Amino acid sequence: MSPPPPPQRRDAARASPVVVSGMGMISPLGADVGSSFAAAVAGRSAVRQADAAVAAGLDGLLTAAAAVEPQALLGAADAGLDRAAQFALVAAAQALEQAGIAANPLDAERFGVYVGIGFGGAYSLDAMFTRYFRLLLGDEANRRRAAVVHPLTVPRLMANASHAMVSMRWGLQGMGNTYSVACASSAVAAGEAMRAIRDGYLDAALVIGTEAMLTPGSMVAWNALRVLARPDAADPAASCRPFDRRRNGFVLGEGAGALVLESASRAAARGAVALAELAGYGASSDAHHLTAPSLQGQVRAMRQALQQAGLEPSQLQYVNAHGTATELGDLLEAQSLAQVFGAGSRGPAVSSTKAVHGHLIGAGGAVELILAIEAMRSGTLPPTAHLDEPDPRCEVDLVAQRAREGCRVDAVMSNSFAFGGSNACLVARRPEPSAPPAAPEPRP
User: Fold this and answer.
1) Alpha carbon 388 to chain centroid distance?
2) Residue ranges of the alpha helices (H) in 43-82?
3) CA angle, corner 260, sides to 208 and 38, nearest 5?
4) pTM of the entire structure?
5) Edge-to-edge order in the sheet of strand 204-211
6) How do residues 93-113 score in pLDDT, each as one tens digit?
7) Residue 104 CB neighbour total at 10 angstroms
8) Residue 441's pLDDT band (boundaries 50, 70, 90)?
9) CA-to-CA distance for 159 and 179, rounded, in angstroms?
10) CATH fourth-level superfamily of 18-121+158-428
11) Strand 111-116 with 177-179, pairing
12) DSSP bridge partners of 205
């Protein structure tokens, strides 16, 4: 018996669909998409006590470091790049390989690169100041050399360093940009890339979210904000507990996710397999508070994404929530989800994979969207690990502790809500059956 058709759109006049034809990932959970998703489904946490060199003297600091060193997957020429750029190159290579796209495509001028990153060059910046102050506080002879740093320090520190390296490596010359919108960075990058393709400015784009800020300087700053989780006495790996009544904060992670987006006509013309359709993007600004979320801002972003996708709330089956395991953040997101979809079993299944891979900041939007797409493709919904005591005030259908298997999932949402009040929501759905290649669309 053939599966039922995907849900119908309300907006028949919507532009040509944008599909995902390749995905890549290097994360705390694994060196690629498959291993990362398998770990998320199993609830296998990558949270550990931080190395002493990173902890900067802070007691009980936790991190979720990448499962593999990015340099081990790259050539010697990339050893001098900032760690965030290395992550970006690894994820980009995987996504392009799956999509069947080689360097210097014939339509390179219509192929863009969109990157999201929260704090570019954190490793390079930390290393520069460490060296500078060690020399500055040394003897007189060494002080004269205190200003001597690597000549490529500034290019390494640039937020757009990953964009530059990926564009040059694969010869992608189309329009693109780097977005630094805290936790919403790569979700915004994906949404803006989708718009550029949908509106005819590009035919394809490589979207990347990357982050590498597990450095002493970053840890001290985040610790001062009082949002980091305290170690669980029995099991440090279980310290991040989104939506649990005992939650007390998140754990910083690192890594990158990448997606190849194409117009459906371009993908069909070259015989590519559409893994999903990126169908909806909603964005809003709270204009409310620097760190506290706004229910109505989140509601606006989710409703925009559903409307753009042409879906009713009842047609969406799974949400990979922002779910940072902060007291107010989880509660407000649960309330906003209930307002958009309905409370409890009336709404979609909800989980937060941050429980096992940590908060990837700028990379989070891309990584969590990929995990949501994999949930749709496999019919297996990853759980919120360590959710032993659900907060009764969070009245949504939480996937707790164990994955749900054998689910029919036609559409998914990924939420990214950032400090500063920037909200971004993405909706992906099952792609429609391939159609014969359409005539080229007029270019703006």
Assistant:
1) 26
2) 52-55
3) 75
4) 0.91
5) 177-179, 111-116, 204-211, 255-263, 18-26, 276-285, 422-429, 411-418, 318-320, 344-351, 396-398
6) 999 999 999 999 999 999 999
7) 10
8) very low
9) 8
10) Thiolase/Chalcone synthase (3.40.47.10)
11) parallel
12) 112, 261
**N- to C-terminal Cα separation, the chain:** 44
Rounded to 5, what percent of the chain is helix, strand, coil? 35, 20, 40
> In the numeric block, which tokens belong to residue 80?
């001098």
DSSP state of 28: T
- DSSP lists the bridge partners of residue 262 as 19, 204
Strands 422-429 and 411-418: antiparallel
Q: Which residue has tokens 């770990």? A: 39
- Token output for 400: 């707790």
Q: Residue 431 pLDDT more than 90?
A: yes
157 neighbors 124 (Cβ within 8 angstroms): yes
> What does the block give as tokens for 179?
């977005």
CA dihedral defined by 292, 293, 296, 300, rounded to 10 degrees? 140
Tokens linked to 33: 């998409």
Length of the chain: 444
Instruction: Please give the structure tokens belonging to residue 37.
Output: 């998703």
* Residue-by-residue DSSP string for 326-386: -HHHHHHHHHHHHHHH-SEEEEEEEE-THHHH-B-GGGHHHHHHHHHHHHHHHT-BPPBTT
Query: How far is Cα 42 from Cα 30, in angstroms, rounded to an integer?
Result: 13
Kindly state the DSSP code that residue 408 receives in the 8-state scheme: -
Give the pLDDT confidence of 55-89 residue by residue, as tens digits. 888 889 999 999 999 999 999 999 999 999 999 99
What angle do helix axes 327-341 and 295-309 make, rounded to 10 degrees? 40
Q: Nearest CA to 15 among 331, 442, 302? A: 442
Q: CA-CA distance, 280 to 427, in Å (whole number)?
A: 5
Q: Where are the domains of the chain?
A: 18-121+158-428
* Residue 154, SS3 per DSSP: helix
Give the span between the Cα atoms of 179 and 300, in whole angstroms.
Answer: 21
Side-by-side strand order, sheet with 62-64 = 48-49, 62-64, 252-253
SS3 99: helix
What does the block give as tokens for 320?
């990979």
Cα(321)–Cα(302) distance, integer angstroms: 11
Pairwise CA distance, residues 270 & 189, whole Å: 25
Q: Which residues are catalytic?
A: 183, 322, 359
- Cα(98)–Cα(34) distance, rounded to whole angstroms? 12
Tokens coding 334: 């649960």
